[in-house]
Each structure stands twice: as C-alpha cells, then as structure tokens.
Amino acid sequence: MNRKLFTLAPIAVALVLAGCNSSNSNDGKDDLLQPIVQSKVHDILNVDGYQFRDANGDGKLAPYEDWRLTSAERAADLVSRMTLEEKVGMMLIDTLNAEAYGYIGSEHQNLVNRQMMNRFIFRNTILTQDEINALTDEERQDGGAGGPMGANYKISPMEAAQYMNSMQELTERTRLGIPALFKSNARNHIDPNAKAGINVDSGAFSSWPKEGGLAATGDMALIGEFGNIMRAEWNAIGLRGMYGYMADLATEPRWYRVHETFTEDADLASEIMTSLVGNLQGKDVSSDSIVLTMKHFPGGGPQFLGADPHYIAGQHQSYPAGNFDYHVKPFIAAIDAGVAAMMPYYGIVGGGEWSINNPDSTDLDAGGIPLGDLLHDRVKNTVRVPNNDYSTSVGTPAGNVGVAFSKGILDGLLRKELGFKGVINSDTGIINDQNEVHTDYEMMHNNRAWGLQDKDKTEQFVIAIEAGTDVFSGFKNNAEIRTVVEQGLVSEARIDESVKRLLEVQFDLGLFENAYVDADKANAIVGNAEFQEKAQLAQRKAVVLLENTDATLPLPTASSLFTMGMDGEIAEEYGFDVTIGDDDEGNKVAAATESDYALIRVRVDNIPAVITGDTPTNRALVFGGSDFDELSVLDFTGMAKSESWVITPSLDDIQAVMGEVGAENTVLSVYFRQPYVLDDTSGLKGAGAILATFGSDDRAVMDVISGEFKPTGKLPFALANSAQAILDQDSDAPGYKEGDELYPFGHGLNYK
Fold first, then answer.
1. What are the backbone angles phi and psi of residue 545, rounded to the nearest 5°?
2. Residues β-bridged to residue 601
3. Which backbone phi and psi does 137 adopt, to 5 degrees?
4. Which one of 55, 135, 230, 632 has the minimum C-beta count within 10 Å?
C-alpha cells in the first residue's frame, strides 16, 4: 500500500513571556498571569495587552480562545460552535502510533480530518537515542507482525516529541483548532513480558519496579518522587494522559493482571492512588499535569475463577465474601484526590448466581462452545456470586451486562453516590462488529459488550451512552455514533454533556494555548541519570526477603557463586567467583558442585501467542494468561507439568542445582508476577534464602545478596501454602482462609 509520509513545517510560532494587566483601577485584582502561547498555523491575537491563540483562524477572540475564562465557560462556548460530527469525534479514542522515524501518514490524516478525532492512544516502544542509532534502516522500518494494536515502530524520545508536535499541527489546521490529547498505558516499569494493549516496557524511560514493587517499598515519599519523575518524562514528549493507574485489588491470585495492581490491601492502595493523583496529575488539572484515567471501576480484581474479561470465557466477576465496597475504596480515594477520568472494566458485576454444574438463565457461551468445556472439573462447582446493589434492568438476567453498560454502577454509584464529575472512558473494544463464532484461543474477540452480544452496535451504543459512558476506546467510526443521534435514539443534549467534560480537560491542560514541546530536549530528559538513580533505589527497596535460614544472606564476599536466570558478569562485579550455569535459552549447561553457593533468578510466564494479524497461530491468548483449564495452577509443581505455564530455569534444573550445591546454600530470587505457590513437592521452600521480586534488575538483587543494601521490602499480597488454598480462597477477599497462608500480606525479613 502506498502511504505518504510527512511532517508539518512551522508556519508561525510565538513564545510569550508572562505578563499582567497593569491597570490600577481595581488595585490589581484583575492581574492575570500570561501563559505561553504557541501556534504553528495562525497569527497570535493581541487583545487588552494579552496574547491568545487564534484557534479557528478568524482573526477575532472567541470566548473559547480566551484563557481568562473558566474551562467550563470555554467548553460551553466551543460546544455551541461544533457540528454534531465534531462532537462525536470528541467521543472517540483509538490507537494511533507514529510510523517509522516518528512520521505521520494517511491514517493520521483520516482520523483527524475525516473522523474528527483528537484523542489517541500512543503505544510505540521508545528506545534511547543510542539504541535507535544502533538499528539498521530495515530494523527501523519493521513495525512487527501487527497484532491487536497495529504496527509498533521503535522511535527515540526526540522522534516521539516530533511526532506529537506534527499531530498537534495537524489538529491545529482543523476548523476549530481543537488540540490532540495522547494517552498511554504504563511505560515506566521493568516488564520482560509486556503485552500490546496492556502495558509497554520502560525502554528509554526511567525503569522502576512494577506496581507491586512500588507497593512493596512502603515508601510513600519515593512513590511521590516516582510520580513527579514520570510526569516530567511524559511531558517531555507531549504525552499528556495515562490509561492508569490500576486501582484494582490483587484479591484473586489466578487473575493474570495481578502484575499491574499494587496490592491486595484497600488501605495501602488508597494511599498510593492519592499519591499518584497528587504527583502525576494534581488536585486540579494544570499545564504540567498528566491526566489520569483510573481503572477499572468499580474494581476488576474479583474475576470469577481468575479469568479475565478481555476474553469471552472471562466475562464475570464474583463476590463470595460480599466485599464489593472493599474494592471501591481505592477509587473513592482517587476521586477525593481529584482524578480526571475513570475507566470501567469489561466485566459483569451483577446478574445471576450460578456455577457450571448448576447454571441459571445466564448465557455461558464461550465462543461456540459452553464455558464448562474450557474449564477444569475442579472449578465447576465454584459458585459465581453477583453484586446487584447498583444494578440495571438491562441484561438477562437483569444486571448481566458489562460495567460500561450499567447505569446503576456508572450513573447511580459513580456519578450520584460518589459525586464523580469527570470523564467516563470505556475500556478498549466494548463495542464493535458482532463477534464471529470462535473461542479465545482461535482469535481475539473485538466486541466485548458482554451480556449484550445479542444486540447490534446501535443498541449497544445507546445503552452505553445512556449509562454514562463519555468516550469510546478502540473506536474510530464517527458515522456509527452520529447515526444514533440522527435517528433520535440519543439526544444531542446528552452528547453535549460528554463533550463539555472532555473539552474541559483539554482546556485545563493548557493545550489550547500551547500544545507543543521542545523535541530537542526530550532525549536529555527521558530516562536521565538522576531519574534512573531514584528508580534504582526503588528497585532495591522493592526486594522482599521471604526466608533467610541460618543467615544465609548476605553471602560472604569472595565466595564462589553459581548463577542461573541472570547476567553472571554482573555478579562478578560484586567480587564473587562466578560460574554461569545456563545458556541464553535458560537451559542448565554446567554443574554447581564446585561452587559455595547458587543464585537462581526464577521467572514464570505463559506461553506467548504467535500472532498474524489478530489471529494467534498457536494455542495461546493474545493478551496473556494461562489456558482456562489451568488458571488455578499456580503451584510450581503443577506449573512445571502444565501446557501453558513456563518456568525459567525449569523446575528440574532448579532442583538439580539445589541437589548439587545443597538446598541450604541456594538462594532463589522469584519474580512474583502473580502470587505463585511455593508448594512442598517442589522443594523450593528448602532453599537457604528466598527473595520475592516485582521488577528489580540484576544489580538491585545483587545489592541485596551482597549486603550492600539491606532488604526492607514487604509483600504487597499474601502467598498461599498449597495448590488447594488457591481453589478455596474468595475472589473478592484479601489473603487466604485460616491456615492457608505461607506468608501474610506485609511479610518481609531484614538482616539482623
């Protein structure tokens, strides 16, 4: 396909210093701070001694161009000038990555000029300039195999900023000059298994531990610094919004998205949400804010059997312990802190109570086959318990609809009871063409309107808009939403409500005055040494010492050390005589018999999906997670025997090393992406020392191993003592049943 690539050249630029009204007629009460105003398309307006961007290019100062007015006043004026098509464009947001080298092309023009869009999701991987320079042109022009979120070209921070500036100029050329707002999922964390549509690995950005690792530090001041640093880095490239953070609680260990949550504890999560909103966004959105879209209201943690609602087999949430309010608590904290937007999850909160072996009227189709056919017999008597406190009449039975379609939850609870006045942003893909009949293994489902699969898109849009949804993620077809208004199914006044909320955010961010960034400074800001030093401290503080039998740690200096699952050369820097025991594939290639100690870094993943377009070509799930019949397999013995879990190094190799060097001389560092079970049969509990990590690199671990840094981390969630405990726990309750915990929430040893 031929595609024109271009960047837009500046036409007019004005960088204006602060000024004020010098009139003494009212003792200076009208003095105002002149914001920086910049345009690359139209001349700057000078009115009453102040300067303004001429957004619509008519040479006159319209109320929406006047930064002296409130954002609400400006939004009201702008909405009155917008066509229905322009209004609907505000309610759309979809992935729009930069092309190779940070260029824009025909699709960028289509979404801005034809679909009237100005909200976009940015998912490009950003590498350092040195890493970019090391790539060949062929590598730079390779956007990957596509997948669910399209091509992903690797670019530098400077190129990302140039891309954002080009997009701002493109939107500035539209009739009303409404600026673009780019959002991203988390991209400041070490994640060796990042998934498109879920998160992005840190790349050039400062590399902090995963969310659970930040919680494990217990250091709210450091978490506050994290927020400030992330804000500076994102601002440097013009990335002004985030799909995050996740306020969901890690109460269901089988849910594969536990790695994106901070903790199982609602109070700790609330404290963290308050800090993140305060330091990333601020109580009031301003010109240096990163606006947050907190997710996934009212809490996506209690997934039934741990299955995720990205999949048709994972539609339902369950509340066997009656803890609905417990999961809402962190969202209340975010609202009190001033969060700008909320994202409801795909999952179904209300509806009926049932089990696979005792169904009700709920449709348990899982893509042409019954849900029960995908699940293991051991979970078929587990009862799914709904919460219908804030239900809706829609669905069969009533309330059996995803949260984005539930007026009871969005309007009744979020808006009326909790007083949330911000934007409600759907999760990606709640509405699309009707799904073809297939399982999640065969292809991802593009329409996740769970409970409303029998409705067409028009009906789904009407239900979602009336429920309270303001903006539809993963959608870019203006005509289909516009039609529901033109047909009289939704009033234009209701559309105006959403558009005003959306516009106020862009006014508050100062984008109407200056949407551009200095691309030449981006490389120096993103991931700079000072920022990374703070991130490295967080990585150290995130390491949790679970066991330290007979003071195995810190290891004595100058001892011989056998390593697997890490860079052995880094261990050598700490004065150890190192034998590297594995190859690049993680296979054991040497014996540990001559070493004093062994250090094994253990990682657990699911088999990766091999994707062509939207279609996996192997039996794996696009967004991650185990096979549905292996969701409850979190014990190392079970995972080693499974089809969809991969332990690296293998359990056999780990056990062999423990036998060669002695279990008491073995140090295990386990990356707990989920709350895995150190079961008795695996023998792992016999190790002399066990560390839990949540996104700490080899140097951070070696700092702890060597004693250069004394461990301070605390578990952000409890760990079970058996495979059975995973089956017996309640999806909505923190921890495990009495007698089922190996380590409780908050456990963590230190060096005496």
1. -90, 105
2. 669
3. -60, -35
4. 135
pLDDT in tens, 615-663: 556 677 888 899 999 999 999 999 999 999 999 999 999 999 999 999 9
Q: Half-sphere exposure of residue 721, counting CA atoms within 13 Å on the CB side?
A: 9
**Mean pLDDT value across the chain:** 93
Measured at the CA of 388, the angle between CA 384 and CA 394, to 5 degrees, comes to: 100
Query: What pairs with residue 689 in β-bridges?
Result: 548, 667
Tokens of 170: 């493109």
For strands 741-743 and 719-720, give the pairing.
antiparallel
| Distance from C-alpha of 599 to C-alpha of 438, rounded to nearest angstrom | 44
SS3 assignment, position 370: strand
In angstroms, rounded to a whole number, what is the distance separating the alpha carbons of residues 67 and 51? Answer: 9
Query: What Cα–Cα distance (Å) separates residue 688 from each residue in 586, 661, 685?
Result: 22, 11, 8
334 in Cβ contact with 273 (< 8 Å)? yes
State both tokens at 581: 């025991």
Whether the full predicted model's pTM is greater than 0.90, yes or no, is yes
Residue 712 clears pLDDT 60, i.e. is over it: yes
Picking from 515, 499, 493, the residue whose alpha carbon sits closest to that of residue 177 is 515
Q: What angle do CA 84, 88, 89 make, to 5 degrees?
A: 115
Encode pLDDT of 72-110 as tens digits. Answer: 999 999 999 999 999 999 999 999 999 999 999 999 999
DSSP-assigned beta bridge partners for residue 47 = 50
> Considering only 5-9, 377-381, 607-611, 669-673, which range has the smallest mean pLDDT?
5-9
The pair of three-digit structure tokens given for residue 541, joined into one six-digit string: 């503080």
Contact 601, 671 (CB under 8 A): yes
Q: In a 10 Å sphere around its CB, with 0-12 CB exposed, 13-18 middle and 19+ buried, how is residue 15 labelled?
A: exposed
The whole-angstrom distance between residue 218's C-alpha and the CA centroid of its chain comes to: 21
Stronger pLDDT, 13 or 232, i.e. the higher one: 232
Q: Compute the distance between CA of residue 429 and CA of residue 433 in angstroms, rounded to an integer.
A: 10
CA dist 501 and 518 (Å) reads 28
The enclosing H or E element of 604 equals strand 597-606
The closest of 666, 683, 651 to 561, measured between CA atoms, is 666
Q: Residue 719 and residue 450: Cα distance in Å, rounded?
A: 32
Residue with tokens 């040494």: 529
Q: Which residue has the tokens 């993943």?
A: 605
- Angstrom distances, CA of residue 251 to CA of 563, 629, 737: 33, 20, 12
Residues 6+ apart with CB under 8 A from 192: 201, 603
pLDDT of residue 434: 83
Sequence letter at residue 590: A
- What DSSP string runs through 717-730? S-EESSHHHHHHS-
Q: Decide if 630 contacts 376 (C-beta within 8 A).
A: yes
The helix (H) or strand (E) run that includes residue 483 is helix 478-486
Tokens of residue 80, six digits: 């009155």
Kindly state the DSSP code that residue 677 receives in the 8-state scheme. B
- Residue keyed to tokens 């409780």: 744
